[in-house]
Structures are given as structure tokens and as C-alpha cells.
Design brief:
Shape: globular
Helix content: 40-55%
Radius of gyration: 17 Å
CATH topology: Rossmann fold
CATH class: Alpha Beta
Strand content: 15-25%
Number of domains: 1
Number of helices: 6
CATH superfamily: NAD(P)-binding Rossmann-like Domain
Largest sheet: 7 strands, parallel
Number of strands: 7
Structural class: alpha/beta
């Protein structure tokens, strides 16, 4: 009989919205799942139930506040302790608050930086050190990074930095670890409602994320 190689995906911000959709998609492709969440405990527990019962895949849920630097290494350590064969990291966690350039305060910039730059930087580093075989990292950024103005200033500024991180880490880690990015447009809330027909933008994003796993050391930025 052929040997079935185990595979697992670590997905940040996975309890709700796009992160949840990504987790269910990967489970449907045979991946065990590490669900990171911050405040959405009930949603994370229910997602674990769905993944284990519907897809018969192992699921670990891990609470972590990415404003706490030490939570980053702890998340990766817990993931690889339970699933040492983890070979995919999806940096999806994000915050999104409306504040213009003139309204943005230090705490806003600091929090956005912690979530959108520092967290994926060190999660990528820790994942690369732990990954036993070839691995893939997909960063979820934002279509808006092509624009030069935004009413969500700290968010968009740090997402632009996230894009730069993707490029630089891709060259650092190739060819063993591929690093790529998806830059989706806004996806409405009703696209994630149970029982609703999936939004075409959501379907496109999920399909492209799966396609990115076929990358072989090349850098992909997929918009929309």
C-alpha cells in the first residue's frame, strides 16, 4: 500500500470569516489544521468540531494575542508538538479600524504593526526553523496596497510592509520554503454565512491559495 504522507496547515485568525473558510478548505484537501484565534473562542471550538466530524481531520485550537511577542513562538511550538509534520503556514490574522492619517495615534500604528508585520515575520521565521521538509507560506495581504491613500491608514501602511516582508522572506527561504501572497478585495460578511451560496470573490481567493501551494520557489502576488 502507498504511504500516505501527513500534512498540516497552521492558519492565523482562523476562527471567523476568511480564516475559517481557508481552514475548512484545507481540511477538505486532507490537511490537519491548527486554528489560531485571539478572542473568538466559541467560534474556534465549533470550527474544531466541524473539521473533526465533517472532514475526519485532526484540529488543534490555540489562543494567542499577537500584541504579546512571546505568544508567537508559543503558537508555533504548540503546533509542531502536536503536528510535527506541519508544512503550511497561512498568515491571515488582521485588524481593520477606520482612521485617517491625521487621526492615527501611536497605539494604532503599534497594534497594526504587531499584527501585520511583526507577527508574520517571526511566525515565518519560527515555522522555517521547525518545518522538517519542504513547506509553503501564504500571506493574506490586501488589494488596497496598490493605492497611495486610505481611510484605514495604519492598516494599509502595515499591509504594504507585509508585502515587502513577503518578497524578502521569499528570497531568504527559497527553495525549501516558498513564500507567496494573496491580495484579495473586500469580501462581504454574507459570503461567510452558513447555507449561503459562496461569494465569487471568496471562491476565487480560496482557489488561488490552494494553487499557490504548487509554487516552486517563485514569488507570486495574486491580486483580487
Amino acid at each position: 500500500m502507498p504511504i500516505i504522507k501527513k500534512k498540516a496547515a497552521i492558519i492565523t485568525g482562523a476562527a471567523k470569516r476568511l480564516g475559517r473558510a481557508i481552514a475548512l478548505t484545507f481540511a477538505s484537501y486532507g490537511y490537519d489544521i491548527v486554528v489560531h484565534y485571539h478572542n473568538s473562542h466559541n467560534e474556534a471550538v465549533f470550527l474544531k468540531y466541524v473539521i473533526e466530524k465533517l472532514y475526519q481531520k485532526k484540529c488543534l485550537i490555540v489562543k494567542a494575542d499577537f500584541n504579546n511577542f512571546y505568544s508567537l513562538k508559543d503558537l508555533v511550538e504548540k503546533a509542531f508538538k502536536i503536528m510535527p509534520y506541519s508544512n503550511v503556514l497561512i498568515n491571515n490574522a488582521s485588524i481593520f479600524h477606520r482612521k485617517t492619517f491625521l487621526e492615527t495615534e501611536n497605539k494604532d500604528l503599534t497594534c497594526n504593526y504587531n499584527i501585520h508585520v511583526r507577527a508574520p515575520f517571526f511566525l515565518t521565521q519560527y515555522f522555517a526553523k521547525k518545518c522538517q521538509d519542504k513547506g509553503s507560506i501564504v500571506n493574506v495581504i490586501d488589494y488596497g496596497i496598490i493605492k497611495q491613500s486610505s481611510n484605514y491608514y495604519a492598516y494599509m501602511l502595515t499591509k504594504k510592509s507585509f508585502a515587502n516582508l513577503t518578497q524578502m522572506s521569499a528570497f531568504e527561504l527559497a527553495p525549501r520554503i516558498t513564500v507567496s501572497a494573496i491580495c484579495p478585495e473586500f469580501i462581504p460578511d454574507d459570503a461567510f454565512l452558513s447555507g449561503s451560496s459562496r461569494d465569487s470573490t471568496l471562491n476565487k481567493v480560496l482557489r488561488k491559495i490552494i494553487d499557490l501551494l504548487d509554487a516552486t520557489g517563485q514569488l507570486y502576488f495574486l491580486f483580487k
